[in-house]
Specification:
Largest sheet: 8 strands, mixed
Number of helices: 8
Number of strands: 14
CATH architecture of the largest domain: Roll
Oligomer: single chain
Structural class: alpha+beta
Helix content: 25-40%
Radius of gyration: 27 Å
Distance between the termini: 102 Å
């Protein structure tokens, strides 16, 4: 007699998921948050949902929406780094459905162009397709410090900061009318000690040179420090060389260079002078220019 013994092994229940309806729902909510679509964002939550923001004390979904509106209004742009995000769904020991999300959150403060990068962790409890509980964890020290500094600025400092923001926008859009509106007629610019412009039109001509050579030319401010009628700016410039530059044909190469500028302002907050300092050799090497050998 042959006895066949079958040993049945119960398949282990899946507890971790990289794809699910709940994950897609959270992703849709994040997309709505980044678009400022608060009606769609709120629709992901149950009416009685509780939200915990760096606290053991919960707030209502309406309070959370109001807080997000206020925070996002202070940013010129904001959102998560989706190239560096991680998301998973877990069924815990009580068979509750939780979605966990990790990603850096990048934002630019509108008032001073200060860029913030803060790691954020979301722990989100779903029930019947809706969020019933959300825990938001991040270190808000840097953001709170920047917001406090802005609220403590004097009226004159705020005028200067507004001018700086307008000048940055003018550079990024090649808007000479906006640029001229924020500087005096006899505006002076030097670069590494050499005279570049002695009036508004001279400054505008300088802008034209860079926007003709680099149509996507952009300036971003890394740090801004205002002391009296003087501002100290660390900046980064980027662009792609699509036009003639310094007598050279387009290289179709990208540049990224860093520099420092000292700006002066009059009593109305208009710019009167910029002294810029940067290493031209960095740009020349990125474009593949051959530098002459010193004699």
């Amino acid at each position: 007699m042959t006895i066949l013994v079958f040993i049945g092994c119960k398949e282990k229940e899946q507890r971790y998921f990289s794809d699910s309806a709940e994950i897609n729902s959270l992703k849709a909510g994040i997309k709505s948050y980044e678009a400022g679509d608060w009606t769609t964002w709120k629709s992901q939550f149950a009416d009685t949902a509780k939200v915990y923001v760096n606290s053991e004390k919960s707030i209502s979904i309406d309070d959370r929406v109001n807080g997000l509106k206020e925070m996002s209004a202070a940013f010129s742009k904001y959102g998560f780094d989706h190239d560096d995000e991680f998301i998973e769904m877990v069924l815990d020991k009580d068979n509750e459905t939780w979605v966990y999300y990790w990603a850096p959150h990048h934002a630019t403060i509108a008032a001073n162009n200060k860029q913030l990068s803060i790691p954020v962790h979301l722990a989100v409890h779903f029930d019947d397709g809706k969020i019933v509980e959300e825990h938001v964890l991040f270190d808000g020290t840097e953001m709170n410090k920047e917001m406090a500094a802005l609220s403590n600025m004097s009226a004159d400092e705020k005028k200067i900061l507004n001018t700086i923001n307008n000048i940055t926008t003018a550079w990024n859009t090649n808007d000479k009318e906006l640029m001229y509106a924020n500087m005096v007629e006899n505006m002076v610019r030097t670069a590494n000690g050499a005279s570049i412009a002695k009036n508004q039109s001279g400054y505008g001509d300088f802008m034209d040179i860079y926007h003709a050579a680099f149509p996507d030319f952009k300036v971003s401010l890394n740090t801004t420090k205002i002391v009296g009628n003087t501002a100290y700016l660390n900046w980064t410039c980027t662009g792609t060389n699509k036009g003639e530059f310094m007598g050279n044909p387009p290289a179709n190469k990208k540049i990224e260079t860093h520099g420092f500028s000292i700006w002066k302002f009059d009593a109305e907050g208009k710019a009167t002078r910029e002294d810029a300092f940067y290493d031209n050799l960095v740009v020349y090497e990125q474009l593949g220019y051959n530098m002459p050998t010193p004699k």
